[in-house]
Amino acid sequence: MKHLDSQNFNQKLETKVKKVITEYNLIDDGDKVAVALSGGKDSVLTLQILDKLLKEGVFDFKLLAIAIDEGIGGYREEGIESARNNAYQLGVEYHEVSIETELGFSLDEASQFFQTACVPCGVFRRHLLNRTACQLGSDKLATGHNLDDEVQSFLMSFARADVRRFAKFGPKQDRIHPKMVPRIKPLWLVPEKEVGIWAIMNEVDVHLAECPYAHQSLRSRLKNYLNHLEENHPGTKMNLLKFFQKNLQLDKKKVKLAQCQICGEPSSASTCKACEMQELIKQKL
Ligand code: SF4
């Protein structure tokens, strides 16, 4: 019975993912798709579903995984272990990049200079993910962003009056710079709760612990607030997503990127955020 239930549940999840991939044309034939694999439940589900759709011949693409080791002591090691195991079990090409090796300091060391560790973490992770995906010739970078993450991100942009970030809304980004690998979000319509049920029901090897810095973030506060709202008013998260989708689309083609004068990566300013932060951290360390 349990087997039948999980089969049914998995099937429904897969249908949701297929719908997003097809409706928004996330993957073109022959694409090389890199999954940003943290070892957490969302990225592992993304990898497993894409691998299944590939092996069943539903879509035609190449798959690989990239894990970023931020250097968060007592936390990241387990996630990396889970990322390695999942990629290995599926036979997916796997690449690991460490912030410490690449930049000369760990996130734990860098975090002391910021109000929250999530600020340098996000900047360096995005920077290294894009650079590695681009070096590996990837056409798309698939992230494990689920419906909850998307609504949180949107509300964060509102709270920070960061209108530019509205352009990142939606399951697919356009290629706005030759060195910027477009991101896709196959779990865009999947609520976080369903990802959790999937991991438990299928006894998947995922890293379920919460990052020790998570409590510092605005995202974490919004997440609690939205969960509370959803509990009392079911459907709120999906309604917010639909509202944003209908009313607040920014013309993504208007977002122009130049090239960072230091590292050559795509950037909206002459020096990218990653180089700017790197400089500041190295001076202070
Ligand atoms: Fe990085 Fe913050 Fe996420 Fe921890 S909670 S992994 S510091 S973004």
UniProtKB/TrEMBL annotation:
Pfam families: ATP_bind_3. InterPro entries: CTU1-like_ATP-bd, Ncs6/Tuc1/Ctu1, Rossmann-like_a/b/a_fold, TilS/TtcA_N, tRNA_thiolation_TtcA_Ctu1. One of its GO terms (biological process) is tRNA wobble position uridine thiolation. Keywords: ATP-binding, Nucleotide-binding, Transferase. ATP binds at residues 36-38, 42, 68, 144, 149. Residues 32-173 form the tRNA(Ile)-lysidine/2-thiocytidine synthase N-terminal domain. One of its GO terms (cellular component) is cytosolic tRNA wobble base thiouridylase complex. Gene3D superfamilies: HUPs. GO terms for molecular function: ATP binding; transferase activity; tRNA binding. This is TIGR00269 family protein.
